[in-house]
Write a structure and sequence with these properties.
ten-stranded mixed sheet, two-stranded antiparallel ribbon, Isopropylmalate Dehydrogenase, alpha/beta, 2 domains, 371 residues
């Protein structure tokens, strides 16, 4: 038996309460099949935490996340909490977790399952074969740079945000991108605006320097406006897209839409690899794993939610935090087999397919792994 992998389970709000338990079931199935040990510890975040503790990220919940090797998160937010002050809204829990866990890289895969091509708004001949990964810097750039704020003048107001990047911030996110590309098709496209922004000029220079350590990976550069166009024109040209916080925020949503349904898309936010506290288990890269979709309050409790994005987020956890690539691929293969058998939740339903609910979709994927 392996040493235990400790996982913080944060179901959050809305459909997070429905899909996260299914992802946990999938992990338990993998553990039984391969003699792994996953220890789960649940905690409240988001609206649920506000209702119980008055804050979106209680210190106890953050402590649980810090003590674990990885975090599985559902979704946070909903109409019930929209009237709260911005500083204590459910979404603040996400920023607190990223900061508290030192998570600086957001990984957003956009992979088209071929049987779902008709769900996309683009033509099949454009999107067939899409399999790309957006690596977004998460803790720097214009969202965090100073000075920032709104200043009043006699003639009106001025809004200020500052784009700031350091050598350290660029270097560490570039390494994540190149390491990820080594597991894929060994191609990185670094996206910036170096023709007009000094911060992007530094970004490009540092990325080129880091690339010297990864001569087996191809590196190209693209301006962000061109990249936005190329994602629509020819998305198959991309393998790994490396970019800044704001550019990545925009491009990752664009890439997600290419696949047709955000109910299919996982994501990961990871930090520095570190020596594991578990004897003999090598390195652990702490990460937070969550579906791209939100809490979907309109379908809560109706057995309509698609659990696949959360299940695939759990698969990403096995790969990026624990180095269990084969187990991760086994989950992805089980999802593919279920889709090949024409089972569909409401968000990906089409004529002639077999409609299933949240729980049944999860059960089918578990059965696929057990076989």
């Amino acid at each position: 038996m392996s040493p235990p992998y400790r996982i913080a389970v944060l179901p959050g709000d809305g459909i997070g309460q429905e899909v996260v338990p299914l992802a946990v079931r999938v992990l338990e199935t993998v553990s039984k099949k391969h003699g792994l040990i996953f220890e789960f510890q649940e905690a409240a975040v988001g609206g649920q935490a506000i209702d119980r503790h008055g804050v979106p990220l209680p210190e106890e919940s953050l402590s649980v996340a810090r003590q674990c090797d990885a975090v599985l998160l559902g979704a946070v937010g909903g109409p019930k909490w929209e009237g709260l002050d911005y500083s204590i809204r459910p979404e603040r829990a996400l920023l607190g977790l990223r900061e508290g866990l030192g998570l600086y890289a957001n990984l957003r895969p956009a992979k088209l399952f071929p049987m779902l091509a008709d769900a996309s708004t683009l033509k099949r001949e454009v999107i067939d074969g899409i399999d790309l990964l957006v690596v977004r810097e998460l803790t720097g750039g214009i969202y965090f740079g100073k000075p920032k704020g709104i200043k009043k003048y006699r003639s009106g107001e001025k809004g200020i945000n500052t784009e700031v990047y350091t050598t350290k911030e660029i270097s560490r996110i570039a390494k994540i991108a190149f390491e990820s590309a080594r597991k894929r098709r060994r191609k990185v496209t670094s996206v910036d605006k170096a023709n007009v922004l000094e911060s992007s000029e530094l970004w490009r220079r540092i990325v080129i320097q880091i690339h010297q350590t990864y001569p087996d990976v191809e590196l190209s550069h693209m301006y962000v406006d061109n990249c936005a166009m190329q994602l629509i024109r020819d998305p198959r040209q991309f393998d790994v897209i490396l970019t800044t916080n704001m550019f990545g925020d925009i491009l990752s949503d664009e890439a997600a839409q290419l696949t047709g349904s955000i109910g299919m898309l996982p994501s990961a936010s990871v930090g520095q690899a570190q020596s594991s506290r578990r004897r003999g288990s090598g390195m652990i890269r702490r990460g937070l794993y969550e579906p791209v979709h939100g809490s979907a309050p309109d379908i809560v409790g109706q057995d309509k939610a698609n659990p696949i994005a959360t299940i695939l987020s759990a698969a990403m956890m096995l790969e990026y935090s624990f180095g269990l690539d084969k187990s991760s691929q086994e989950i992805e293969a089980a999802v593919l087999r279920v889709l090949e058998k024409d089972y569909r939740t409401a968000d990906i339903m089409s004529v002639g397919m077999k409609p299933v609910g949240t729980r049944e979709m999860g059960n089918l994927i578990v059965q696929g792994i057990e076989r």
